[in-house]
Write a structure and sequence with these properties.
The protein has 10 helices and 7 strands. By secondary structure, the chain is of the alpha/beta class. Strands 1, 2, 3, 4, 5, 6 and 7 form a 7-stranded mixed β-sheet that branches.
Amino acid sequence: NPRAQALLRAFGKESVFCPLATTCGGGNAVGEMPQTEGEKGRRLRIKIISMGAAESGKSCLIKRYCEKRFVSKYMSTLGIDFGVTKFKNEDIDVSVNIFDLAGQPFFFEVRNEFYKDTQGALLVYDASQRSSFDGLGDWLVEMRSHLPNPTAMDNIIFAVCANKTDVSHREVTESEGKIWAETKGFLYFETSALTGKNVVEMFHALFAAVVATVLNGQKPARINFDLKYTPEQVALVTRIRCCEGSHEILSLPKDCSREE
C-alpha cells in the first residue's frame, strides 16, 4: 500500500514492510495454497496479527516461538514486522503469515492497512502494567473500525496473552484477565517470553482454532461467548477467586463458628 510505505519511509523503516507477493510467492494472505503434482495432504495459508500496547512483549513472544530464544534488548517495532512460520495440523501443512503491529499510537495509519483478512489475533498485555490491560478494548475498537463490515470480527479467533508473568509484581491478576477474555469468547493464556511459559501452547492453540474455523466456515462454539458481565460482577468474581476460604468470601473472621 503506497500510504503505508510512505509512512514507513518517514520513520526510516521501509524494510519491515514485506508485501506478500514478495515474501510468500504471490497470491492472497489466506486460503488454500496450490499443490504440485505428487504432493500429499492439504496446504493452507492463514493470517495472524499481534496487537497490544508498546513494550508489552508482542515481538518477543513471536521471536521466542519462532527462534526458541529470548532477546533482552529489543528495538520497538516501527510500523509492521512480518514473518512466516510453518504449522502441521493433522494432514494439513499450514503456512502462517504473522504481522506484528507496532503498539505506538502514531503508527495507527500503518496498522489500519493490515486488519483486513485477519483470521487470528494475539491480544497481548503486560501483566505488570495495568494500562496495557485497560487498553485492550481500544485495540478491538480500532480493528473493528477498519474491517470491511461490522460482522467481519465474528469469525476471527482471538488469543489474549497475559505476558511477562515471570515478574514478581503484577498489576493484573490471572483471574481478572481470564474473566475479561472468557466473557468475550477469547482464548486466554498466561505467557512469558523470558521463560517460554505457555508460548508454544498458545501459538499452537491459536493456529489450530484458526484452521478449524477456515475448514468449518465458522468459529467453534465457546462457553460464555455471549455472556455480558458488569464491572461490578467481574470485581466480585475476581475477589471470590482470590479468597482462601469460605470465611474470607463472606468477609467473616476466621475464628467465626458456623452458628455465628
